[in-house]
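User: I'm new to structure prediction. If I give you an amino acid sequence, what do you actually give back? Let's try with this one:
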Amino acid sequence: MQSAAGIADQARPLFGGALSAVVPHSATDISDLREIPHNQEVFAHAHTDQSLIVELVEYQGRVADQDAARYHFEDIAGSNKALEPGAFEVTSLTALPKSEVCLSECSSAWMLIGTQRVSKFNEEARNTVTLHLGLLRLPQFSTDVLITFNDPQSISPDSSSAAALGTLKEPWTVQDFQRMLQTLTLHNPGLFG
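Assistant: Good question. You get back a string of structure tokens that encode the predicted 3D arrangement of the chain. For your 193 residues, that looks like this:
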């Protein structure tokens, strides 16, 4: 796969090589900087406040496929303390044809776009973040795989993220997120126990 720069993109090993995906340019592996839960791979853009998270969560069997992405989006809003009225909104939900994803083991794939008003580090200041959520359902492994692209749209001047505003160098795009979602590949099913 070729990136915009014309350099061949290489799949990056995830979860000790059990999965892999093409991770966009300027990605810093946050596990090099701090402790990350074992069910997550977290990447931050080197020059913006954007992040990408690959997360393995419990398969929600009682939630229909078409409702599962919204379920996980609302769960993330709860974790972000963004559940009050007006703090989160789903703007689109699309089923992805299995032919468009490399993770052939998934029973269904979904892409959700929404916004959340969140604060960082329990600050009072709230930033408006567009959240692109990819969901790959793996009921046979009792796992839902989430790929989340956090793309800040409006940063409060009182936020600790405000310092990054003047350094917008080649921000990640929705295409970078989609490439990561579409190239996620399973190499070792033992990852799921």
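You can read the tokens as a compact description of the fold. Here is one thing that stands out. Helices lie at 65-79, 174-183.
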